[in-house]
Amino acid sequence: MGVFTNLRLNNLEDLFFVEIKDLYDAEQRITKALPKMKEAARSPQLKRAFDDHLRATEGQIERLRQVFSALGRTPEGETCEAMKGLIAESDEIVKAEGDPDVKDAALIAAAQRVEHYEISGYGTARTFAYRIGRADAARLLEATLNEEKQTDKKLTELAEASINVKAERS
């Protein structure tokens, strides 16, 4: 939501549309960031995790398109300033010099910040969808929320089982 905006929030449905437009933009940005993160990673497991995340993100964008369609709206994004910032931070890590194992740990940390933002956004949007009587949209958003939680869990397991261990030894 930009600083100079004509944003009008007259009801929960208005707020719901702001949320899904924000998520739509955020997911679009993530699809551009993940290939760079994959390229910067050294760990084959982390590279695979970024590939898996990209495929899931593409599916999540399609699910958001279904939400827009079910509501009779055209898919559009509202600039997600938060995701722009999170991705700018990940770009700094991508460009960073130093020990590759430590860089992998930093990439996971950046990816998890993105996941936590998405978990918050999808949980909120899902709840709003239920409140405005759109169980169809809520179910689609819940499917994505569950995927986001699973991605976060996988990244945690990868970090704890190997990446952070290697970084600590550096």
Structural overview:
The chain is mainly α and 170 residues long. It has one domain (12-169): Ferritin (Up-down Bundle), CATH 1.20.1260.10. The protein is 81% helix and 0% strand. The chain has helices spanning 12-40, 44-70, 81-95, 100-131, 135-169. The chain is elongated, with a radius of gyration of 17 Å. The mean pLDDT is 94.
How far the N terminus sits from the C terminus, by CA atoms, comes to 41 Å
CATH hierarchy class name: Mainly Alpha
Largest sheet: none
3D shape: elongated
Number of DSSP helices? 5
> What is the CATH architecture term?
Up-down Bundle
Strand content: under 5%
User: What's the overall average pLDDT, rounded?
Assistant: 94
- As for the CATH topology, it is Ferritin
Strand count: 0
The helix/strand series, from N terminus to C terminus, equals: HHHHH
Q: How does the helix and strand content classify structurally? A: mainly alpha
- Unreliable spans are none
CATH fourth-tier homologous superfamily = Ferritin, core subunit, four-helix bundle
Task: State the main characteristics.
about 170 residues, Ferritin, 5 helices, about 0% strand
Secondary structure layout:
Layout: H1 12-40, H2 44-70, H3 81-95, H4 100-131, H5 135-169
Helix pairs in contact: 1-2, 1-3, 1-4, 2-5, 3-4, 4-5
What's the short story on this structure?
By secondary structure, the protein is mainly alpha-helical.
